[in-house]
Design a protein that fits this description.
The chain is mainly α.
Length: about 130
């Protein structure tokens, strides 16, 4: 539940404060870049749910197998981040749908999001023992 709250808050903050305005500036020729409507919010809800489940389950499995040391938390978070966000943003960048500036902001913030989420999983695992 903590991950659900954390990841949703982090995603909304990163998107509305940084990514959406930067994407609109980077792609002014495209009409309705990063629109906001009920269907778009529903899709983001699905994205966030899949993200929360993926990050939490992958972290849980990896931390159970390799332990919950700070070094392991860092490695697991970085692996999950690269598997989800680096692939996403590099694909968008490769298709000229994201600017270099967006990547420089979105990727570090996404890493922080995943790092905190993995840390929350490690914390929950320690408390459960």
């Amino acid at each position: 539940m903590l991950n659900f709250i954390w990841i949703n808050l982090s995603e909304v903050f990163r998107y509305f404060v940084f990514v959406r305005p930067m994407m609109q500036d980077a792609l002014p020729a495209l009409p309705d870049v990063a629109p906001m409507s009920v269907p778009i919010f529903l899709i983001w809800g699905v994205w966030d749910t899949i993200l929360v489940i993926s990050v939490t389950l992958i972290a849980l499995l990896a931390l159970e197998r390799f332990g919950g040391s700070p070094k392991t938390v860092f490695k697991v978070a970085t692996g999950i981040w690269a598997s989800i966000f680096v692939i996403l943003w590099l694909g968008l960048y490769n298709m000229n749908l994201a600017s270099h500036d967006v990547l420089l902001v979105a990727l570090p913030l996404a890493w922080l999001e995943v790092f905190v989420a993995v840390h929350l999983v490690a914390y929950a695992m320690r408390r459960a023992q």
